[in-house]
């Protein structure tokens, strides 16, 4: 590791949890192995993603996102809300901007403790997802998967909202054990950069129930970008309107796919868990929890 002591904050968005490290004043780079060690729930801080805050010349902060397996990615909806809340509190403002590898996001804090992030415009072209081969209609691609119990999942919608998502529409999301087959779908050859895999059930034209297997992290309590990708895919396929409530195991995210400019507005809560210090000594990581 390129650091010996660094403080962290443990936060979550609807149970999707993060170790947030601050490299703005104290410059360091994490390797994939170091991020995995921090994410380890037995020996590290324990989290789905490691978030590193860095200086930005285009926004109030740059947010680097590393999955629990160490892979670096372009977007994380729940972490965007957490970082938005942190930086807004630091600056004493209600609106802040966050640069990510996928672009600059605008975050707004409302008086009710919720944070709204403009997640930008979704992309649906097969090269944008990306997919390994041309698919003429990304509202339902030609992928079909036979599950170990013989049932078939087919025709997922796909979308890129800064990261790749595949959404399988089913009648009952609880009738499937996503943990047993999510990993194989994440690595299906149709997804050259792997993908986040969701099962989605339409409750009514304003409500969708969602379970997510996250690329690089496995099953999580909530995934903000999956909520965005699901909402836009639901609207695109005529399953819902453009304003929906996405119900995840960890709670509810509100999504509005704005008609004026196609930007996705994601609204949800953030939570502070505890703070602490990471120390590297003799090549091993120790975690001291301070509050
Ligand atoms: N939990 C996040 C998504 C994190 C990245 C994702 N696993 C990927 O690899 O694309 C969210 O709330 O969006």
UniProtKB/TrEMBL annotation:
Homodimer. This is Diaminopimelate epimerase. Belongs to the diaminopimelate epimerase family. It comes from Rhodomicrobium vannielii (strain ATCC 17100 / DSM 162 / LMG 4299 / NCIMB 10020 / ATH 3.1.1). Its main location: cytoplasm. HAMAP family: DAP_epimerase. InterPro entries: DAP_epimerase_AS, DAP_epimerase_DapF. One of its GO terms (biological process) is lysine biosynthetic process via diaminopimelate. Pathway: Amino-acid biosynthesis; L-lysine biosynthesis via DAP pathway; DL-2,6-diaminopimelate from LL-2,6-diaminopimelate: step 1/1. Catalyzes the stereoinversion of LL-2,6-diaminopimelate (L,L-DAP) to meso-diaminopimelate (meso-DAP), a precursor of L-lysine and an essential component of the bacterial peptidoglycan. It is an enzyme of class 5 (isomerase). The record marks 165, 214 as: Could be important to modulate the pK values of the two catalytic cysteine residues. One of its GO terms (molecular function) is diaminopimelate epimerase activity. Keywords: Amino-acid biosynthesis, Cytoplasm, Isomerase, Lysine biosynthesis. One of its GO terms (cellular component) is cytosol. It is found in: Cytoplasm. Its EC number is 5.1.1.7. Substrate binds at residues 16, 49, 67, 77-78, 163, 196, 214-215, 224-225. It catalyses: (2S,6S)-2,6-diaminopimelate = meso-2,6-diaminopimelate. It holds the Pfam family DAP_epimerase. The active site is at 76 (proton donor), 76, 223 (proton acceptor).
